[in-house]
C-alpha cells in the first residue's frame, strides 16, 4: 500500500498543477486498489539502458492517466500502478517474472525489447489464459517487431503498438528508393528472430524496389555479446558499401556505429533505432547527413502539439540523457485506459474486446488497433541526423548536440501491410 500512498500523493500534486480536482479518498482508496501493470524488461545487463528508457516512458504515461483521476470504473476510479520485473535480458528470467507478476495480481503485461522474449511470453500467456480463465492476462507489446507476432503467431491476448519490422523497412525504403547515390549496401543484424527478419525483408524489398543495388555483405552477430565491433566495421569499410542497413538496437547499435566511425567508414546508416540510446553521440559529426532512422514519431516533427508533447516530457525528465521519448508508448497506455473504461472491467477478455478496433489520439498523433491481427496502425516518420540548430533540428537527442530532421512522413494508410493472421477468439 506504500506505493499506492505515494502514487496518490503524486497524482494529487499533478492534478492540481493541471487544474484538475484531486480524487477523494472514497474515489481513490476503493476496496479493489490500483490496476497493476507488469513491466517485464531487461533492467540490468547489456541492454539496461533500453529497459530504463522504456520505464521512464511508461511511468510518464501512467502518471498522466492518474493525474486526471485514474481509470473510471463502475466501482469507482482506480489508479494505474506500474510494477517493475527485471528479466535481465534472459528468456527464462522473463518467464519467471511473468509467473511472479500473475501471482502478484497483475493482469496486464508490458514488454517489447526483444522479439525472442516476446515470443516466449506470448506462448506462456496463451497457455495461462487457456488453463486458468480466472487469471487471464493481456500482453501489450511496444517494441518487439518480429512480423510473425501479428501474422502466423498472432494471439487474441497480444496487442502490438509498434510498427513491425517489415513496415519499418518499407518506410526506410521510401528514402533508399530515391537515393540514387547508393549503389551497394551491407546488411548486418543481431542473430535472433527480429534481426533475421530485418535482413530477410531488406533483401526482399531491395530486390523489388532497388534491383540495381548490390548487397556486398550480409551477416548476423550474437545478440548483446559483442564488445568489440571493430572487426565488423573493418569488413564493412573493406566491402566498399555505400550504406549499411541494420535493425540493431541498444549497445549493439551504439558500439557498431562507434566502431565504424573509428575505422573511418563514411557511408550511410539506415537504421531502425539510430536516433537515440547513445548512437548520435557515438558517431558525432560523421553521422551528419548519414544516419537515417525510422520511428513512429520524432521530437522534431513539425507542429505546436508535437513540440508541447516533447517539452512536457523534458520537464518531467530534465536530465538530457533521459530524453528518449516514444509516442507509441504514450498511445499504448491511453488506449489501455480507454479500453478499461469502455469495458467497465479489468477482466482481460472484456478489455481485449474493447482494445481491438480502438482509435486513440494524443498531441496530434493517432492510431487504430487493427482487430484482425492486433497490429497498431499509425503513421511513420523518417529522419536524418544533423546538428542541433540546423534547419528542422530544434531539439537534439540526449544532450548530444545532434538531432533528427524529418525527411519523410508516411501516413498510416500507406504504412499498413496485409496480415496472414487467423485470429482465434475465446
From TrEMBL:
InterPro entries: BCAA_transport, Leu-bd, Peripla_BP_I, TAT_signal. The keyword Metal-binding does not apply. Keywords: Signal. Pfam families: Peripla_BP_6 (PF13458). Residues 1-26 form the signal peptide. Residues 34-389 form the Leucine-binding protein domain. Belongs to the leucine-binding protein family. This is Branched-chain amino acid ABC transporter substrate-binding protein. It comes from Curvibacter cyanobacteriorum.
Amino acid at each position: 500500500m506504500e506505493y499506492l500512498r505515494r502514487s496518490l500523493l503524486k497524482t494529487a500534486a499533478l492534478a492540481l498543477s493541471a487544474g484538475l480536482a484531486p480524487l477523494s479518498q472514497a474515489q481513490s482508496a476503493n476496496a479493489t486498489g490500483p490496476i497493476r501493470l507488469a513491466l517485464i524488461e531487461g533492467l540490468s545487463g547489456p541492454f539496461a539502458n533500453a529497459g530504463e528508457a522504456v520505464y521512464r516512458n511508461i511511468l510518464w504515461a501512467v502518471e498522466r492517466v492518474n493525474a486526471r483521476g485514474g481509470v473510471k470504473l463502475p466501482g469507482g476510479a482506480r489508479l494505474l500502478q506500474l510494477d517493475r520485473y527485471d528479466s535481465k535480458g534472459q528468456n527464462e528470467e522473463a518467464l519467471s517474472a511473468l509467473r511472479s507478476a500473475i501471482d502478484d495480481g497483475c493482469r496486464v503485461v508490458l514488454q517489447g525489447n526483444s522479439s525472442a522474449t516476446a515470443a516466449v511470453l506470448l506462448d506462456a500467456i496463451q497457455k495461462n489464459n487457456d488453463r486458468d480463465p480466472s487469471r487471464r492476462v493481456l500482453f501489450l507489446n511496444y517494441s518487439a517487431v518480429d512480423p510473425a507476432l501479428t501474422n502466423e503467431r498472432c494471439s487474441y491476448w497480444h496487442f502490438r503498438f509498434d510498427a513491425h519490422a517489415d513496415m519499418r523497412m518499407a518506410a526506410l525504403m521510401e528514402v533508399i528508393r530515391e537515393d540514387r547515390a547508393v549503389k551497394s549496401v551491407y546488411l548486418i543484424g543481431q542473430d535472433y528472430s527480429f534481426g533475421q527478419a530485418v535482413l530477410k525483408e531488406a533483401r526482399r524489398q531491395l530486390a523489388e524496389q532497388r534491383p540495381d543495388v548490390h548487397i556486398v555483405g550480409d551477416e548476423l552477430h550474437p545478440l548483446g555479446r559483442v564488445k568489440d565491433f571493430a572487426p565488423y566495421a573493418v569488413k564493412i569499410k573493406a566491402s566498399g558499401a555505400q550504406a549499411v542497413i541494420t535493425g540493431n538496437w541498444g549497445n549493439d547499435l551504439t558500439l557498431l556505429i562507434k566502431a565504424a566511425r573509428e575505422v573511418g567508414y563514411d557511408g550511410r546508416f539506415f537504421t531502425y533505432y539510430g536516433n537515440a540510446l547513445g548512437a548520435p553521440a557515438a558517431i558525432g559529426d560523421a553521422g551528419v547527413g548519414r544516419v537515417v532512422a525510422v520511428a513512429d514519431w520524432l521530437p522534431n516533427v513539425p507542429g505546436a502539439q508535437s513540440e508541447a508533447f516533447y517539452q512536457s516530457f523534458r520537464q518531467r525528465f530534465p536530465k538530457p540523457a533521459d530524453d528518449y521519448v516514444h509516442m507509441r508508448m504514450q498511445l499504448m497506455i491511453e488506449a489501455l485506459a480507454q479500453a478499461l473504461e469502455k469495458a467497465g472491467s479489468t477482466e482481460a477478455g472484456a478489455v481485449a474486446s474493447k482494445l481491438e478496433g480502438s482509435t486513440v489520439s494524443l498531441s496530434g498523433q493517432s492510431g487504430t488497433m487493427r482487430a484482425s491481427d492486433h497490429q497498431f496502425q499509425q503513421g511513420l516518420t523518417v529522419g536524418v541526423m544533423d546538428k542541433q540548430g540546423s534547419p528542422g533540428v530544434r531539439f537534439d537527442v540526449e544532450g548530444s548536440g545532434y538531432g533528427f530532421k524529418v525527411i519523410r512522413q508516411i501516413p498510416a494508410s500507406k504504412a499498413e501491410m496485409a496480415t496472414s493472421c487467423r485470429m482465434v477468439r475465446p
